[in-house]
Design brief:
This protein is mainly α. It has ten helices and no strands. α5 runs antiparallel to α6 and α8 (about 145-160) runs antiparallel to α9 (about 160-175). It is elongated. The two termini are about 40 Å apart.
């Protein structure tokens, strides 16, 4: 994802055509429906995002979620709305809600790295089958994505599937994943 943060924009509401051309509407989590042909973002969406940001900075997490719920109701494909809401839910320790919003954000911008992020988060909360499923999606998109291969292999080993885990770890190791090289030597002799 681009380093540019839509959420830090307060003014101007209009993005320059150069920014839109370089980053693209989708990379900002904004569909064409949120902006006109000049790249002007819907003012209401910007106001909602800025309100959520202010509430979050004030540690009003329930208020943040309330504002983001309104934004998502009106703009259901707004990537930044889901990103902000999943980060807020994580602060509230709402793990199912956090993972649901993270999954929705990734569905809006699917790529191997984003599915790997889901796998890492599910691993953190010991949802190993869910983490393997997310790793599978990352690998479907990019069969040579070493971090997802290594994680999937390690998770399979954790669940007792050495025949399934070691080939993933070996492939990740061959692709240069340092953790996989260590795991290969330790678990797959």
């Amino acid at each position: 994802m681009a380093a540019f943060s839509l959420c830090s924009l307060v003014q101007p509401i209009a993005l320059s055509s150069a920014v839109v051309a370089v980053l693209g509407m989708a990379s900002l989590g904004i569909s064409e429906a949120h902006a006109n042909h000049h790249g002007v973002i819907d003012k209401e969406l910007m106001e909602l995002l800025n309100s959520a940001k202010r509430k979050s900075h004030a540690s009003d997490y329930k208020g943040t979620i309330s504002v983001l719920n309104k934004a998502i109701k009106k703009y259901p494909d707004c990537l930044w709305c889901y990103i902000m809401r999943y980060k807020t839910k994580e602060k509230l320790n709402d793990i199912p809600g956090f993972l649901a919003d993270l999954t929705k954000a990734v569905e809006l911008q699917p790529n191997a790295s984003n599915y790997h992020l889901i796998a890492l988060e599910k691993t953190k909360y010991k949802d190993y089958p869910g983490a393997i499923s997310a790793s599978n999606k990352a690998i479907d998109i990019n069969p040579n994505f070493a971090p997802a291969l290594g994680l999937r292999g390690f998770l399979k080993l954790t669940l007792g599937d050495q025949k399934g885990g070691c080939p993933d770890i070996k492939k990740a190791s061959n692709l240069g994943d340092i953790s996989a090289k260590r795991d290969l030597a330790k678990y797959c002799k």
